[in-house]
Amino acid sequence: MIRPTTQQEWLNRAALYELLALGLRVPTAELGEAVSSGEFAEALEEIGAANGLATAPVEQAVADLAGYKGQDVEALFHRLRVEYTRLFVGAPEPQVSPFAGVWWAGDQGVEPLLFVNKRSMEVERYLRAVGVGRPEGTNEPLDNIATMLEFLQYAALVCAGSVELPEGVEIDAETSERFADDFLNDWLGRFALKTAEETREPFYRALAKLLGLL
To answer: 18 near 148, Cβ under 8 Å?
Structure first.
C-alpha cells in the first residue's frame, strides 16, 4: 500500500489495522454481535474503500460475511471461538501459526520455540524500545500478528497526530515501514494464504483477503 501523507489518510490506515487486529484476536461476544448485525462487514467495506484497497477482494470479503447477518449471536460467537482455537491455537499444533518467530524458524529450519527464538526476541526488543510491552497479567509473545497490527495502528495514530508519545519515544512513518519490512511483510502473505486455505469459516476467509492486500 502507498504510505499515507495526510492526517485523514493516517487515520484511515489506523482503522484498517484496528479492524484486522480485532478479527485476529480471540473472539468475544462483542465481535459476534458486530458480525451478526452486519456492522463488521459495513466497517470492512468502508475502511477498505477509504484506504484505496482493490475493490474486487473487498467486495468478496463483504460477500463472505453476508451469510452471518442475523445469526444468533451466542451461537456465532461460539463458532468463531472454536474456529479461532482450531486455526491459531491448535491441539497440539495450530493449523496456522500467528507468531512471526514460528514462521522465521520454519524458514531457517530450526525449532520454532515461542518467546526464545531469534525473531521473537527481535520483535520484543523493538516494541519495548518504542514503549510497547505485554499488558499486565498476560504472557503472550509480542510477535503475535494481532499485537503487531495493533502496533501499526498505534504508529498510524501517532503519525496522524492523535496520540502523544511518552517522553523519549520516537515513532514516525519510517518507524512503521521499517517494522513492517523487518518483521511482518516476509510472512504476512503466506499467513493470509494459509488461513484462507485452512479455515472453515467465511469470517477468517474475509480477513485473509484483506491481509493479502497489505
So the answer is: no
Burial class of residue 77, CB neighbours in 10 A (0-12, 13-18, 19+): buried
Helix/strand number for the chain, H first, E second: 11, 0
The residue type at 191 = F
- Segments making up each domain of the chain, as ranges: 7-211
CA pair distance 151, 156, nearest whole angstrom: 9
pTM: 0.94
pLDDT at 137: 61
What confidence category does residue 115 fall into, taking pLDDT thresholds of 50, 70 and 90? low
Closest to 79 in 3D by CA, of 203, 193, 196:
203
Q: Answer positive or negative: Cα dihedral of 81, 82, 88, 93.
A: positive
Top-level CATH class of 7-211?
mainly alpha
